[in-house]
Amino acid sequence: MQTRLRYADYYNLTSTFDGLYQRSKIGENFTRLYDLIISRENILLAYRNIKRNSGAKTSGTDGKTISYLENLKDEQIVGLVRDKLISYKPDKVRRKMIPKSNEEFRPLGIPTITDRLIQQCFKQILEPITEARFYNHSYGFRPMRSTHHALARVQYLINKGKLHYVVDIDIKGFFDNINHTRLMKQLWNIGIRDRKVLAIIGKRLKAEIQGEDTPVKGTPQGGILSPLLSNVALNDLDHWVAKQWEKFEPDFNYHNISNRNAALKKTNLKEGYIVRYADDFKILCRDYQTAVKWFHAVRLYLKDRLKLEISERKSKITNLRKRKTDFLGFTIKAEKKGKNGRRVAQTGISEKKKKQIKHQAKTIIKAIQKDPKTQNALKWNGFALGVHNYFRKATLVNLDFNRIHYDISRTMYNRLRHKAYYGKPITATYIFRKFYRSNYKTFKVAKTWLYPLTDVQTRNNLCFKQDITPYTSQGRREIYKRLSKNVAREINKLINSHIPDRSIEYLDNRISRYSMKIGKCEITGIFLPAEDIHCHHYRPRHLGGGDEFDNLRIIHKDIHRLIHAKNKQTIDNLRTSIQIDGKVITKINQYRKMCNLENLQ
Predict the structure, then answer these.
(1) CA angle at 572 for the pair 566 and 578, rounded to the nearest 5°
(2) By residue range, what is the domain housing residue 63?
(3) CB 3.0 to 4.6 Å from 345: which of 155, 179, 256, 284, for a disulfide?
(4) Is 456 inside any structural domain?
(5) Which ranges does the record mark as transmembrane (predicted)?
(6) Position 401 in a domain
(7) CA–CA separation, 316 vs 312, rounded Å?
(8) Which residues are within 8 A (CB) of 92 and not within 5 positions of it... i.e. 6 or more apart?
């Protein structure tokens, strides 16, 4: 997210996005968005954003990937987008079936790289408008929000609100059944009233799928614009539920929120609070009778207003005092705590996720047995750190991972005992010592200690702070403060990244250096996500420098290119794109001096 904010600054679009957000916040409608979408700055920003996406190297029906765009000049990319939008006809979408955990398949639609670039152009302009109007407790596919925030909201409603009944609604094939006509009306109602923009989105929705007919409903998963459109489709549901109780304004006066709630409880209104992550949502209620009313009301609303059907088999009402409910890979139950019998949310790992973790763990163990090399060891460490980071927000995470470790321990020992050393990691790397304790026995594969799956402690799960948004100056300040805490997530990406022909010393020290510097560039001081990191040898290898910890520096990839650049035009282009000041130039010159290169002026 910080990289996205910095890119918006590069192209002078921050104030534009802020303006769209503020105008939408006060209910203004937008009739002239097309010129913003095809502006040179917005198109180049879109290219820079999609270039970083993991799917950029995936081809569409035309066989082209991001490398096709990389070979074009800036003006050619701008011209490509503008020319195609003059008489827009989307290319065919490539269909790919992704296996799900229940042996079913999820259809994925992959647009061509040009159509993805166009969708990103639209998303950048539409997102600030829609963000201003989305419901506070919708958490899926929105900037800075996560599954943990949705879980924290449910925990809060159970702990503080004492709401122990939950309505689970499962929408049948949501992404494939979104009603196009209804969606276009919702875009109009949310403030997007540029008819040319709406016409292009309408054509995008009806893009032909390779090997299938032209769709009459749905928005394919895999498109850049699809997550935003899915949130628009369910935004009406969010606000409709909220207006039934949470946002309902009674005719009589009240002095504070407690008086308001007391007054509302004397009415026949249905008390309920919705928490949604994409198409997965729950409504928390106080009693069974209210939950039944909400169940049928939401079912009818989805059917009559949004033209969506629910899965009767998967939709249900759960008494959290007696049974668990699953949400985003976690289990939730209201358990008694303390002498007064107060009930609090107890969370753990769902059975389905436990099976997936054990299956994935055994797959990696078998790979290590067949090929006990560094890359497979790092693959295990990336897997372990990833599942720990996600599930450590559960209150029972330690017990659940102890059981998972026990279930796979025999497989792990039998397969690795002749391939690796088994013991306590006395000389573990910095990153190992930072996240794991050394009193657990584990295997050492190719000089790399495997992270112990059983060693994980729960962490407090905090609710989302609603003023955090990339579209206000205050929100951006909050983002910059919080992003430095996400080092573990980026380290997980570094562990999983593959750099050929690098020593294990280099790979370990790179991660350790990044962790020690709290993820910040050692020249600019800016937090770096994994995809923007280059690891520089302070004394170059061709001048005798090695891979030892003290000789490595974590820096932004563009800064790294500038350190080694010799061509004047290349230097000028890099300096223009990254907008560096005199202090940064002084530091870069120190690095260039070590490389026997001339100073930058």
Answers:
(1) 110
(2) 1-133+180-216
(3) 155
(4) no
(5) none
(6) yes
(7) 8
(8) 60, 61, 112, 207, 208, 209, 210
Q: What is the distance of C-alpha 306 from the center of its chain?
A: 26
Q: Residue 287 has which token pair?
A: 């009693």
The 8 Å CB, 24+ separation contacts for 419-425 are 419/368, 419/369, 419/372, 419/445, 420/368, 420/372, 420/444, 420/445, 420/450, 425/449
CATH code (residue 273): 3.30.70
DSSP-assigned letters across all residues of 530-599: GGGEEEEESS-GGGT--S-GGGEEEEEHHHHHHHH---HHHHHHHHHHHT--HHHHHHHHHHHHHTT-PP
Answer positive or negative: Cα dihedral of 386, 392, 398, 404.
negative
The tokens for 378 are 């790092």
Answer yes or no: do 68 and 85 share one domain. yes
pLDDT digit string (tens) for 256-304? Answer: 666 777 777 777 788 999 999 999 999 999 999 999 999 999 999 999 9
Q: What is the pLDDT of residues 558-579, one digit of tens each?
A: 889 899 988 888 888 777 667 6
- 313 close to 137: Cβ distance less than 8 angstroms: no
Last residue of a domain, one of 313, 348, 383: 348
Boundary (domain end) residue, out of 325, 348, 371: 348
The answer to whether residues 336 and 408 belong to one domain is no
Q: State how many domains the chain has.
A: 4
Shared-domain flag, residues 249 and 139: yes
Report the predicted TM-score, pTM, of the whole model to 2 decimal places.
Answer: 0.85
One domain for residues 149 and 279: yes
Residues 83 and 209 in one domain: yes
What's the Rg (C-alpha) of the chain?
26
Q: Which stretches within 392-472 are classed as H helix?
A: 397-416, 430-435
Q: Are residues 297 and 156 in the same domain?
A: yes
* Strand ranges for 286-350 from DSSP E: 316-319, 325-327, 330-337, 342-349
CB atoms within 10 A of CB 294: 25
In degrees and rounded to multiples of 5, residue 96 shows phi and psi of -135, 135
Question: Which of 520, 522, 523, 519 is CA-nearest to residue 583?
Answer: 523
Task: Specify if 466 maps to a domain.
Answer: no
The C-alpha atoms of residue 353 and residue 251 are separated, in whole angstroms, by: 47
By the 10 Å C-beta count (0-12 exposed, 13-18 middle, 19+ buried), 356 is classed as middle
Q: What is the CATH number of the domain that holds 589?
A: 1.10.30
How far is residue 172 from each of residues 52, 110, 182, 216, 244, measured CA to CA in Å? 33, 22, 17, 17, 24
Question: 152 and 123, same structural domain?
Answer: no
Residue at token pair 């609710």: 463
Q: Please, which residues bridge with residue 273 across strands?
A: 284
Say how far residue 233 (Cα) sits from the centre of its chain: 20
Asked if 499 and 537 sit in the same domain, the reply is: yes
How is residue 401 written in tokens?
């991972």
DSSP 8-state code for residue 56 = G
Within 13 Å of residue 60, how many CA atoms lie on the same side as its CB?
23
pLDDT along the chain (601 residues), means of 10: 67 90 96 95 89 78 86 87 93 83 74 93 96 96 94 96 94 91 96 96 91 84 90 96 86 64 77 94 95 96 94 93 96 90 94 95 95 89 92 95 95 93 81 81 89 91 92 86 71 77 78 84 85 90 87 90 87 74 83 89 75
Is 458 within a domain? Answer: no
